[in-house]
Amino acid sequence: MTGKSEAITTGRFDIGQVAASFPSSATTLLVDRYLTNREAASARVFRVYKPTPPHYHATCDEYLYVFSGRGTFWMKDASTISEFGPGQLLFFEKGTIYALPDILEEPVVFLSVDTPRRDPKDVIFVNPQDGTPESFVQQSY
Fold this sequence. Notes:
By secondary structure, this protein is mainly beta.
C-alpha cells in the first residue's frame, strides 16, 4: 500500500487483505486506506464501525461497492431506506445526503471510488453536532 504522496500509475490490490488489516474497533465512525489518490479519482477501502448519521460530500460523486457485511442505507431521505449486502454497488452524486443507520452484520467493508478525488475533510453533517471530518474517519496507511 502507499501513502498520500506517492504517485500510483498502475496497481493490483487485494481488497480482502486490506479489509483484514483494519482494527477490530475504532474511536471514529470508520477507518480507511487509500489505494489510489489522483485528482481525477480516488479509490479507498474502508470499514464502518458505527452507524453513520446523515451527511454528504460537496465535491465528488461516490461509488460504494459492498465487500462484506450487511446494514441499512438511505439516500436523499430516510424514506428510501433499504438493506445492503456483499456484491451490491451504491452510487450517489455529490451533494446527496445519505446515512448508514444500522449495522446488521460485521465487518462492514466498502471499496469506494470517488470522482473526482474526495478531500478527507469533505464530510458535511446535516446536524453539525453529529461530528466532524476528524471524528468521521481515521486514515490508515
